[in-house]
Amino acid sequence: MISADWSAANKKRAESLLAAYPERRSAVMPLLYVAALEHGYVSEQAQRDVAAITGLTAAQVQAVASFYTMYKREEVGEYLISVCTSISCYLLGADDVLMAISQETSTPDGEMSSDGMFSIEHVECIGACGGAPALQVNYELVEGVGPDKGRELCRWLRDARPGVVLGDEMQQLFGGRRSFDWGPAEDIGATAPVPALDAFGNAVRGHAK
Amino acid sequence: MSTSILTGRMNARPTDSHTLAAYEQTGGYVALRKALIEMDSAAVAAEVKASNIRGRGGANFPTGVKWGFLPPTFPRYLVVNGDESEPGTFKDRQLLERDPHQLVEGVILAAYGLEVQQAFIYIRGEYAKPARRVERAIADAYAAGYLGRDILGSGFDLEITLHLGAGAYICGEETALLNSLEGKRGEPRIKPPFPAVEGLYAKPTIVNNVETLSNLPWIVGKGGTTYAGLGPETSAGTRIFSVSGHVNNPGNFEVVMGLTWRELIFDLCGGIAGGRDLKCWIPGGASAPWFVPELHLDIPVTIDDTAAEASMLGSGAVVVMDESTNVVGAAHRIVRFFSHESCGQCTPCREGTTWLENVLARILDGRGRPADVELLLDVSDNISPGLKWPPAQTTICPLGPSAVSPITSILTHFRDEIDAMVGALEVPVG
Fold this sequence. Notes:
The complex is a heterodimer. Chain A has helices spanning 8-19, 28-39, 44-54, 58-65, 87-91, 94-104, 147-160, 167-174, and strands at 79-84, 118-123, 135-137, 140-142, 188-189, 204-205. By secondary structure, chain A is α+β, with helices and mostly antiparallel strands. Chain B has a four-stranded parallel sheet, with helices on both faces. In chain B, strands 6-5-8-7 form a four-stranded mixed sheet, with no helix packed on it.
């Protein structure tokens, strides 16, 4: 029994996540992702829901939620743009990319745009160093993105307003050098700033040409 | 040099190496069949021991020796460390994304060798696409009878659970990873007890890196001694180096260890971009002390030769910087990383990394003071007493001392540059 007022589909996901571990508490991390999809972000209610489902106290769940940067405990934009500014990306001009994207979206680093469309953040290494500078939109990767392409990407997101963010589509349109050959394009992506996995219900087919 | 154990399939099958069909068509799951039918658990573990493979996550600890620490108690767990987050490292991402079944087969082989019936694959949260590929591979492996109950009629059972991180570098430290997997903050534990004795849910647990386990189908298929015969005795096998920064051809390169740094940077990676000169490079991830061309170009790229020069091969991440690099800026960027990723448990790391970041930032801002160099050394010494290599630590885990590496590197090799930055700011009197 899932003791939270969630959609039937998310309750089902919660049940399989609980069943995947020998101890209920282990499901707290994946459940926080599902809760973020249910509530739009990891709100206090989302944390209380996860506490009720796992049998933890709200404080125990908050301790976890506040430790990890990918649990957004404040409202987050439709498109979360995470610009890597760690060493390899830094050496290849990442600070300029961050500034360009921040200007294009009129959104300071670490904040959400006033219309709720974008959140902008600088992040530590995302494992795309061979394709530096790199960024992610809703955790879908684009490599080899300089300041100009970064601006174009923001304008495209604003105009095309994709319901599903596809890494391969963005890479084709705005990306450059990649860390390695990605292989064939994939038509699966993210609907929200939560990693696009089947287990969370966020791996959805897109519309890439 | 062109031996490819790990990346052969993705090169041969560029469009579908990640699928079960392509994996099976190219020899996949053959080693597993052989192991389950012809070998007992001890024989599989013996092949891993004989291979002399050393862990590819960064610590380079011999995998067979680590496995030998397990006490004879059950249940026990196998945990795959796919939290790849060391700045400069992107090899596991390629293995997860392009050949996920190779890892899954490696996990099943390891689990059989270790007599484990529940394994976990922990992948960092930002690796959504690699995790999707593994999620799919696990589902396909269940459907094909490679996972679950009575695998291939052998009587061996194994469940694999995929677990996603959520943005914390420290979870790559194995005890932090176990806490994270238990649904807690990713804070490293005091050792001992080591995970082999008391790990996940306080049960014996082996934690191995993605690249390490991806080698197992080859090792079990071709024999551990064949693997041990590749490369230098104490750096057996191939390794994937992730090269980034100011080189013409960055990327992942799978090579037999033992080539020189000159060959790696100038032959494999095409030398320095824009015709500029090489200034320095990080030989093994952001935690490693830096190398410079005057001293280190002709040293062989092996675990022990790198250690003998007071650095480490770590995770195999090579970050190359050209002559135009502001080394104080580069050091600041690395220190900022460790400061951000400090879990906050230990005061020397939590406070020390913050101070190091702030002092470097003010030097970069043109507000440095002549005494700042001594201050950097003093703070560093409080995190890692004696500033030696391998580093001493006043902390539970090595994250704090890692932040000291870029400081000692620039002070050893580029002292004049930082002196100029802080000294030039003295305002003439009168």
